[in-house]
Amino acid sequence: MAAPGRPPRVAFLAVLGCAVTACGAPRAAPEAHSAPTTATSSPAPATASPAVPGGLPDLTRLDQHDATAVSETALTLMWTVDSTTDHGQLDAYRRAIPLLDSVYAAAITGQAGGGVPGRWSGHRAYARVRLTRQSPQGDVAADTPTLAHRQWKIAVTPTGRDGWKDTPVHATAFVTLKRAEPSAPWRVSAVGTT
């Protein structure tokens, strides 16, 4: 798991790049470095929001006092990459910044991103994200009024707008959430993946 306040090095595209190139059962580590094949055509500016089927979570409807809802929404935003709008997964991470604490957000803002796998461009592909909540494993402390942990099983299917689909990629995400006081909204302070 990534150290609190320190984001994973955008390991997601290493996992998806592996899936796109069929290199076997991938395992993404939070500090994994990747150099995926970049798209040959230029995507839309990074400020564009993906128009993926089903859309992205609506932050105006999110109960930010619910740690589970905040962690699920943040992960959905972080893992929904669209080859028609994103330069890479870092763009997706940046869409989640409103749900991150200031230290984690600053660390993400300062990172350089990798590219979208090249094979995605021809299919105008995006990442179809499915999350399943799991009970945290290991020595995870119980929630307190200002600290919470959530664990999610993630299934990501590279999906083309032309009907193409690649093998789903699976990972487990460990999310730490904090807030300054019990009445404050939850913010994600760290995400680690295996």
Notes on the structure:
The protein has 194 residues and is of the alpha+beta class. It has a single domain (12-31, 50-193), classed as Nuclear Transport Factor 2, Chain: A, CATH 3.10.450. It has five helices and four strands. It has helices spanning 12-20, 67-79, 89-95, 102-109, 118-123, and strands at residues 126-134, 147-159, 169-178, 187-193. A four-stranded antiparallel beta sheet has the order 1-2-3-4. α2 packs antiparallel against α3. The termini are close together. The relative contact order is 0.23.
Give the helices and strands, then pairings.
Blueprint: H1 12-20, H2 67-79, H3 89-95, H4 102-109, H5 118-123, E1 126-134, E2 147-159, E3 169-178, E4 187-193
Antiparallel strand pairs: 1-2, 2-3, 3-4
Give a summary of the structure in a few sentences.
The protein has 194 residues and is an alpha+beta fold. It has a single domain (12-31, 50-193), classed as Nuclear Transport Factor 2, Chain: A, CATH 3.10.450.
